Amino acid sequence: MKKLLSTNYTDWAVSIALLVLRVGMGVMMLPHGYGKLVHFAERKNSFMNFLGMGSTVSLSLSLFAEFFCALFVIVGLFTRFAVLPLVIGMSVAVFNAHDAQIFGDGETPALYLAGFIAILLIGPGKVSADKLMGK
Q1: Which of 5, 93, 116, 120 is the most buried (most CB within 10 A)?
Q2: Residue 11 lies in a domain
Q3: pLDDT above 90: residue 10
Q4: HSE of 83 in the Cβ direction (CA atoms, 13 Å)?
Q5: 101: phi > 0 → left, psi -120 to 50 → alpha, else beta; which?
Q6: Cα 6 from Cα 72, distance rounded (Å)
Q7: Between helices 11-38 and 107-122, what is the axis angle to 10°?
Q8: Which residue has the higher pLDDT, 6 or 28?
Q9: What is the reported pTM?
C-alpha cells in the first residue's frame, strides 16, 4: 500500500508507461487509417478539403498519418517525427471538422491529440526502436 501511494518512480516505470501510451495510441489509431486505406476510392471525392489542395490529397495525408505514422509510433521508430502528422491531423479533426467541440463530437480526436502531444513532448522511451538505434 505504501508503494502505491508513493510519489517516487524509476526510469523503467516511465519507459514502460511510455510504451503503453505509445502502443495504445498507435493501435487505437490504426483502424481509422485502415478504413481510409480500404475505402480510399469511395472517399477520395467526398473527404474534407482542409488544405485547399483537393479532397484526394487531404485524404492521402490523413491516411499517411493515421495508418503509416501510427505504425511508426507503435514500433517507436522516428517517433517524434512520426507523431507530428498525427498531431496536425488530430488538430484539424478537433478544430476544423468538429468546430472545437471537445466535450461533444470532438471528444475522441481531442483525446488522441492530447496523447500524441504527450508522446511528442516526452519521446518514445527506452523500449523503442529509436533507443535501439541509439537516438
Answers
A1: 116
A2: no
A3: no
A4: 26
A5: beta
A6: 34
A7: 130
A8: 28
A9: 0.88
Domain enclosing residue 51, as ranges: 28-129
Structural domains of the chain, count: 1
- For residues 74 and 56, give the distance between their C-alpha atoms in angstroms, rounded to a whole number: 26
CA atoms within 13 A on the CB side of 72: 21
Q: Tell me phi and psi for residue 4, to 5 degrees.
A: -65, -35
> Which helix or strand (DSSP H or E) is residue 103 part of?
none
> Does any domain span residue 1?
no
Q: Tell me the chain's radius of gyration from C-alpha atoms.
A: 17
Q: 26 near 74, Cβ under 8 Å?
A: yes
Q: Does 78 reside within a domain?
A: yes
Percent of the chain with pLDDT over 90: 53
Query: What gap in Å lies between CA 57 and CA 15, rounded to an integer?
Result: 36
CB 123 within 8 A of CB 79: yes
pLDDT in tens, 46-98: 888 887 888 889 899 999 999 999 999 999 999 999 999 999 999 998 988 77
